[in-house]
């Protein structure tokens, strides 16, 4: 009786051990690949509790999560003969657990080596400006180059490749900084010249408008005086406006023209009066007509010219009577 109980106890313990060896727990993010006596079984076990044969079967779990793999810095020479160091990061995941286990050993290491060689190849075909300004194109090309040897034969999918940093030599960095500074200075000069050109056009239009309206310049002068006089800690010297001088010049010219016109009218009125009759015993002396010019100076000159002629006429008359 005691021997039977011992045998039953041993069988129970052995059954529990065999059951523990037969049950496998597969997580949601994993896939189970079963090998029976070293031969791959076609069924892939999904997540949950899975039962396998305790003797002869071996299950290997493969994670299907996205893995991140850093690429060590790689020194390379670009297409325009610039030596630089580039490091990147690769995001990949397993899409076929069977191929990832059977076709390649240590697939993370294989992906790392493929990423390093692909990075050097892509950098060697690109120039420095493309690497610095168009990283999206370089990343897409890296992904395309790495997808070819990994997806179909290894069951791995490269989801994304990103270049993290590009280390340039000190001399190249100084040259690039000088180039950028020169470019900025050129843009600043072009912008300043464009501003001067636009300002000159505006000033030309303003000058044309003020030339058409003389009072606008005086108003602008007064506005400038108001702006300057806002600061009470300065002395303001008011310039004499040129328009006022021109106004006085026009007034003087108009006054002189009116005076000359009055003199001309007065002389015309005198010439219209009847001439004085001389005595019959004095012979009439006819003087040639002389045009009268306007102004008091012209009248005085005419009188001086006529006076000697009258004296000669009187002396001739006295001699004739004697």
Question: What's the helical proportion of residues?
Answer: 55-70%
Strand % is 15-25%
- Which geometry do the CA atoms define? rod-shaped
The largest sheet, given as strand count, sense and whether it forms a barrel, is: 3 strands, antiparallel
Stretches where pLDDT is under 50 for at least 5 consecutive residues are 275-294, 309-322
Q: Over the alpha carbons, how many angstroms does the gyration radius reach?
A: 59 Å
Helix-strand makeup class:
alpha+beta
Q: Give, in order, the helices and strands.
A: HEEEEEEEHHHHEHHHH
Strand order of the largest sheet: 3-2-5
Q: What is the total tally of β strands?
A: 8
Average pLDDT value?
A: 78
Number of helices: 9
Cα(first) to Cα(last) distance is 214 Å
Jot down its keywords.
20% strand, 8 strands, three-stranded antiparallel β-sheet, alpha+beta, 322 residues
Question: What's the short story on this structure?
Answer:
The chain has helices spanning about 1-20, 95-100, 105-125, 130-135, 135-155, 170-210, 215-230, 240-270, 295-320; strands at about 25, 30-35, 40-45, 50, 55-65, 65-75, 85-95, 155-165.
Please give a structural write-up.
By secondary structure, this protein is of the alpha+beta class. Helices cover 58% and strands 20% of the residues. It is built from nine helices and eight strands. It has helices spanning 2-22, 97-102, 107-125, 128-133, 135-154, 170-212, 214-228, 242-272, 296-321, and strands spanning 23-26, 30-36, 39-45, 48-51, 57-63, 67-77, 83-94, 156-167. The strands form three sheets. It has a three-stranded antiparallel beta sheet. A hairpin with a 2-residue loop joins strand 2 (30-36) and strand 3 (39-45). The protein starts with a helix and ends with a helix. The model is unreliable at 275-294 and 309-322 (pLDDT under 50).
């Amino acid at each position: 009786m005691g021997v039977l109980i011992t045998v039953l106890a041993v069988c129970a313990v052995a059954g529990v051990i065999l059951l523990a060896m037969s049950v496998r727990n597969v997580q949601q993010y994993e896939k189970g690949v079963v090998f029976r006596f070293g031969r791959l079984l076609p069924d892939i076990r999904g997540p949950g509790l899975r039962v396998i044969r305790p003797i002869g079967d071996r299950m290997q779990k493969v994670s299907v999560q996205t893995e991140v793999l850093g690429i060590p810095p790689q020194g390379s020479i670009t297409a325009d003969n610039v030596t630089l160091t580039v490091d990147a990061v690769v995001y990949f995941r397993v899409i076929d657990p069977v191929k990832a286990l059977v076709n390649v050993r240590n697939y993370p290491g294989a992906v790392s080596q493929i990423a390093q060689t692909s990075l050097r190849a892509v950098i060697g075909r690109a120039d420095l400006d493309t690497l610095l300004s168009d990283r999206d194109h370089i990343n897409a090309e890296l992904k395309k180059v790495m997808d070819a040897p990994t997806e179909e034969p290894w069951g791995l999918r490269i989801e994304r490749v990103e270049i993290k940093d590009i280390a340039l030599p000190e001399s190249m960095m100084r040259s690039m900084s000088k180039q950028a500074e020169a470019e900025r200075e050129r843009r600043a000069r072009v912008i300043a010249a464009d501003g001067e050109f636009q300002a000159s056009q505006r000033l030309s239009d303003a000058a044309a408008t003020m030339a058409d309206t003389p009072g606008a310049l005086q108003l602008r002068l007064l506005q400038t005086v108001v702006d300057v006089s806002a600061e009470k800690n300065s002395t303001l010297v008011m310039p004499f406006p040129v328009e006022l001088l021109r106004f006085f010049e026009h007034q003087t010219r108009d006054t002189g023209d009116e005076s000359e016109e009055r003199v001309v009218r007065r002389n015309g009125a005198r010439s219209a009066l009847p001439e004085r009759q001389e005595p019959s015993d004095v012979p009439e002396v006819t003087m040639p007509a002389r045009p009268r010019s306007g102004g008091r100076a012209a009248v005085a000159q005419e009188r001086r010219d006529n006076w000697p002629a009258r004296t000669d006429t009187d002396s001739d008359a006295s001699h004739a009577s004697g």
